[in-house]
Amino acid sequence: MELRRGGVGSQAAGRRMDGDCRDGGCKDAGSEDYENLPTSASVSTHMTAGAIAGILEHSIMYPVDSVKTRMQSLNPDPKAQYTSIYGALKKIMHTEGFWRPLRGLNVMIMGAGPAHAMYFACYENMKRTLNDVFGHQGNSHLANGIAGSMATLLHDAVMNPAEVVKQRLQMYNSQHQSALNCIRMVWRTEGLGAFYRSYTTQLTMNIPFQSIHFITYEFLQEQVNPRRDYNPQSHIISGGLAGALAAAATTPLDVCKTLLNTQDNTALSLANISGRLSGMANAFRTVYQLNGLAGYFKGIQPRVIYQMPSTAISWSVYEFFKYFLTKRQLENRTLY
Length: 336
Hints:
By secondary structure, the chain is mostly helical.
């Protein structure tokens, strides 16, 4: 059985669940190649594979994400100033407890599961539909970009509240001891809008992030895996490099998002801002006022180091489970 990937670069035309009659020959369902399997995958398969990929990605990389959040602080406490990821993790565990880098992981898992489930399901179906609408016989970067942007709207709607809570828990000397305590306090003191204060910034960051991510991923797949055979190594390499480039390019927006999410009181006081900071434009002005151009790239190293393995994990896990679950469904169908 020839295994071909059915991820971002799969063709929209000529795919069937029960039998493929290309080149004058037909294959039964049990002989479907990998390129064809995901095309007819059910929505539940996309959602299940996406949820697993999202949870694993965020869980494995969460300690690095905690360091990234702290290193993006515009005016960090002297006790929370770090020069490297390893040094930061070592210092945090030594001074604040072994499990401190994992505080907030529970709320991130609760958000990542449904967010990635909806993201991948929406992306796959929108991509296939748009390829048909455009009449594209192969891979359309435009279709991928639009599908990714639409899927991002759903993903971020679920993830944004989780991001707000987990980033406040990650901050040094956080006043919140648990996710539930944080949710209650934010709701009581700042209202529901606080959970979506950075939503527009999140979308402004993630839409270009996903566009760069998918375009780069497709380009690299064409270079390292031109036949689009199922090759886990190519998923890891392409996904990792695509995530690194997208992360570096969108770091300024991530810094602004972190400021809006955490509402760093010390930084806001230095900028003579009373009350709450809102709006991406205000966040950009505040970052520049406090740290100049260099402020937009605070935490770029941990962000890239976080995103590189994250996207590699996400793509490899997602493609594997999508293939595994769909192949299992097809095998069960042939039995009955």
